[in-house]
Amino acid sequence: MPEDSVPDGDVYEYQRGAGLLAEGHPAAAGTLLERAAAAEPALRSIPGALARAQHDAGRYDDAMLSFQALIGISPTDDSAHVGLGLSASRAGELQPAAEHLALAVAMRPDLGHYARALRGVRARRAAGSA
User: Fold this and answer.
1) Cα–Cα distance measured from residue 86 to residue 80, given in angstroms and rounded to the nearest whole number
2) pLDDT digits (tens, 9 = 90+) for 90-127
3) What's the distance, Cα to Cα, between the start and end of the chain in Å?
4) Is the predicted pLDDT of residue 82 greater than 90, yes or no?
5) Stated pTM of the model
């Protein structure tokens, strides 16, 4: 089965969850995507959508776990490292936030918003230690 395909039994939950996420309903999307992720945890598309839904719903600790799972599937996924970094930052975990954002910047130095996010986290860390 291709890495990004979704099994027939979980298509509805995944498609509906992804639709709710796109429509700006991350909490509702998260519920459906959690079901799809439980059924098929190794599929890259499901944990990515779930992690984004959790982050957007303010569930930063859950989003961190989901982004970590996605990184476990695809360690070179720069957007997963950014998501983990941003979720960690929102959760107040500035050390892992800086580490994952730095990895993303190293992978994609052409994306300025990655570098801006990293600078912001580093500034918060510096302000906290002063």
Assistant:
1) 10
2) 999 999 999 999 999 999 999 999 999 999 999 999 99
3) 52
4) yes
5) 0.81
The tokens describing 3, both together, are 């890495």
Q: pLDDT by residue (tens digit) across 30-40?
A: 888 888 888 87
Three-state helix/strand/coil letters over the chain: CCCCCCCHHHHHHHHHHHHHHHCCCHHHHHHHHHHHHHHCCCCCHHHHHHHHHHHHCCCHHHHHHHHHHHHHHCCCCHHHHHHHHHHHHHCCCHHHHHHHHHHHHHHCCCCHHHHHHHHHHHHHHHHHHC
Round to whole Å and give the CA distance between 37 and 13.
9
